[in-house]
Amino acid sequence: MLLITVFLSFAALVSSGHSPHSAYIEELVRNNAFGVRISDNVMEDACLDLADLVRKYNYPFEEHSVTTEDGYILGLHRIPHGRDSHNVAGDKPVVFLMHGLMTSSSDHVIMGPGNGLAYILAEEGYDVWMGNARGNYFSRNHRTLNPDDQRSGFWHFSWDEIGNRDLPAMIDYALQHTGKSALHYIGFSQGTTSFFVMASLRPEYNQKIISMHALAPVAYMEYSRNPLFNFLAPYAYDLEALARLIGLGEVFPNSEIFTIIGKNFCNDEAITQPICSSIVFFIAGFNENQHNATMLPVILGHTPAGAAIRQFAHYGQSITNKDFRRYDHGLLENMLIYGSIIPPRYDLSQITAPVFLHYSDSDPLADTADVDRLYRGLGRPMGKFRVPQATFSHVDFLWGIDAKTLVYDRVIRYMQIMEILN
Ligand SMILES: *[C@@H]1O[C@H](CO)[C@@H](O)[C@H](O)[C@H]1NC(C)=O
C-alpha cells in the first residue's frame, strides 16, 4: 500500500515545461562545432529542452506534428544527418526509434553524442526519426480532448492504442516526408511491445519495415522479475478503478520537480546520489558496471515524461494472465469492443517484418524464457542476440556505458545487411 501511495503521490505532481534560450544556445553551438562526444556540462544538459540539447551539440533537430485517426496530436522528432560524418542532408535510409514506458524521444539523445543511439545512427548515415507516444511530454495534445481534465477520456489508452494508432500515423508521416517506401525500426522495451501490437493488428505495415530491432523485447511477461511491476500486477484492475475514482489517468508527467531532484540530490557531489541510483535500479534492473551516475541529473531532467495509468495496468494484466493479449476492459466492455469475453491474443504469426531480438541475461523485464517464447511465435524471426555481458540489464540498452559496443554496433551491421538484401 505504501508503494501505491508513493506511486500516486508522484503522479499528482504538476507538469511544467522548459523554456528555450536561443542566444545562449547559439553561443554553445559555436563552442561545440565538432568532436564533442560526452556531456560537457551535466547541470546544463539537465535543464535544456530537448531541441536545444541536440542543437547545442551542433546536430540538426526538426520537430514535426502528426495527428492520429483518433485525434491525438503527436510530436515527431528528426535528426536528418550527422555532424562529424555524413553531415549533409540528402537521400539517406530512414530509421525510426521508439521509446519505452514513461519516457520520450529523449531516450536516444540524453547520453550525448558518441553514446546516444540517435547520434550514432546519424553519424552512420541514417535519417533518424524519433516517435513520441500519446500522453508523453511531446504528445500531450488532442484535437478535442483535454489532457488536463483527467475525466475527458484523453487518458483512456494503453500501449494497444500506441501500437494500433500512433505508430502507423508516425511511420506513414516519416515515409511520406522522405519519399521512401520502407524504413528500419528500433524499439526499446514498450517501443517493442507497441511494434508487436501494430504488426499483428495491422499486418499491412510489415511491408514498410526493412528490419526491426527489438532492444529489451517485451511481449510476454510471465517471468517478469521487476519488483514494482510484480507488486502492482494483482491490482491491474483495482489500480485503475482506484485511479479513476480519484480522477487520475496520468502518471509521472514530465515535471520540473524531477529536474530539481536530479540537480540537487543526484549529482556527483551529493551524498544522496546512491539513493538515486538505487531507485533507477529498483525500477529498471540492477547493474552497477553499466551505470554512469554522473549522468543522473540529465536523465532526471528529461525523464519521466508521462504515461497513462492504463499502460501500467496492461503490463500488469500480461503478468497476471501470462499471455500477450489486448487490453482487458472487463467482461461487458470486452464483449462490445472485441466480441468476446476474454480479450483476443495478439497474433504474432502475422508479424512478417524481419525481426531481430536483442536481449540480456539479467533483464528483469524481458526474461530469457519470455523472449524465447516471443521468438518462437514470430512470423519472420531473423535472429536472437544475447548481449555478451551477464550483468547487462534493462535500461543499459539505452543508458549503459558500453551500449554502443555491446548492442548498437551489431544492430547497425544487421541494418546494413538488410538494406543490401532489400
Ligand atoms: C560519465 O559521464 C560523464 C559526463 O558525461 C563523462 O565525463 C564520463 O566519461 C562518463 N563515464 C564513463 C565511464 O563513460
What does this structure look like?
The protein has 422 residues and is α/β, with parallel strands linked by helices. It has a single domain, classed as 3-Layer(aba) Sandwich (Rossmann fold). The protein is built from 17 helices and ten strands. It has helices at residues 2-11, 22-31, 42-47, 50-56, 117-123, 159-178, 190-201, 227-232, 238-245, 256-265, 273-284, 296-302, 309-321, 331-338, 368-377, 396-399, 403-421; strands at residues 62-67, 73-79, 94-98, 127-130, 183-188, 209-215, 250-251, 307-308, 355-359, 381-386. The strands form two sheets. The chain has an eight-stranded mixed β-sheet with strand order 1-2-4-3-5-6-9-10, sandwiched between helices. Helix 5 links the parallel strand 3 and strand 4. The longest helix has 20 residues, at 159-178. The radius of gyration is 20 Å and the shape is globular. Mean pLDDT is 87; it is low at 1-20. Residues 38-39, 42, 292, 294-295, 401 line the site of 2-acetamido-2-deoxy-beta-D-glucopyranose (NAG). One of its GO terms (molecular function) is hydrolase activity, acting on ester bonds. This is Lipase. Belongs to the AB hydrolase superfamily. Lipase family. Residues 51-111 form the Partial AB-hydrolase lipase domain. Residues 1-16 form the signal peptide.
Structure characteristics:
422 residues; alpha/beta; Rossmann fold; eight-stranded mixed beta sheet; 17 helices; disordered N terminus; binds 2-acetamido-2-deoxy-beta-D-glucopyranose
